Amino acid sequence: MSNLDELKNDRRGLMVVLSSPSGAGKTTLTRRLLADNPNMAMSVSATTRSPRSGERDGIDYFFVTKERFAELETQGEFLEHAKVFDNFYATPRGPVEEALSRAQDVVFDIDWQGAQQLTQAAADDLVKIFILPPNMRELEQRLRTRAQDSDAVIAKRMSKSENEISHWAEYDYVIVNEDVETALAELQTIVAAERMRRRRQMWLGGFVKTLVNGG
Ligand SMILES: Nc1ncnc2c1ncn2[C@@H]1O[C@H](COP(=O)(O)OP(=O)(O)OP(=O)(O)O)[C@@H](O)[C@H]1O
Ligand SMILES: Nc1nc2c(ncn2[C@@H]2O[C@H](COP(=O)(O)O)[C@@H](O)[C@H]2O)c(=O)[nH]1
């Protein structure tokens, strides 16, 4: 690694928030983004909803009872929390603060309520991205193809999708996820550009000082 590459490691981590109506592709896109970015961590949420088949505790979510959720909330262990589709969801504070202190970027798959709360708490570090489906028929089709939720749950999620979409203009970027590869490339472009923002490159001040002093 060159001297310059080492210096460039001194930057503030990003808090990348992805929101969308259920089924638009946040989980799919975040998994791909994380696979391509070793210096990026996923914020694993706590939830009171039951695990879907294949979901693992501590990896996809921390699955907790309503009582435990309330206890953690009272203890101030959450950065944000919200009720979504009859279940409670929250972002545990500790792992996010630890990852950011190691200059890692952190990705959040959370709804508009959570995004609003993080905006209050950490606006400077946030990059908020809204994912739209190409059309509502395709959105429903994706929920059905995922084959993880009952018809009633899918109907509930579809009925709430318009409300979630109504928050699209609160986000810095909007990606229409028609083709996964195109959407992923757009997401990568956003992350790369946000990492380059001057205020996030803490090494630049010292570098410029050395530069103008003939270094
Ligand atoms: N561009 C795409 N084209 C076709 N199918 C897609 C596309 N993106 C995602 N999918 C599929 O749509 C389904 C829903 O995607 P995913 O679970 O990533 O959505 P989500 O936004 O995370 O949903 P939720 O909010 O319910 O967690 C999955 O089966 C996924 O494979
Ligand atoms: N405000 C928060 N919203 C969250 C969090 N974790 C997930 N979510 C959102 O809930 C819905 C449903 O998720 P699912 O896994 O049951 O399909 C989805 O919109 C997620 O983005 C969280 O910690 N806080």
Automatic annotation (TrEMBL):
CDD domains reported in the protein's UniProt record: GMPK
SUPFAM superfamilies (alphabetical): P-loop containing nucleoside triphosphate hydrolases
This enzyme's EC code(s): 2.7.4.8
The keyword Transport is annotated on this UniProt entry: no
InterPro entries found in the cross-reference section: GK/Ca_channel_bsu, Guanylate_kin-like_dom, Guanylate_kinase, Guanylate_kinase_CS, P-loop_NTPase
A Pfam family annotated for this UniProt entry: Guanylate_kin
Domain Guanylate kinase-like, residue spans: 13-192
Top-level enzyme category: transferase
Family: Belongs to the guanylate kinase family.
Record protein name field: Guanylate kinase
Species name: Litorimonas cladophorae
Gene this protein is translated from: gmk
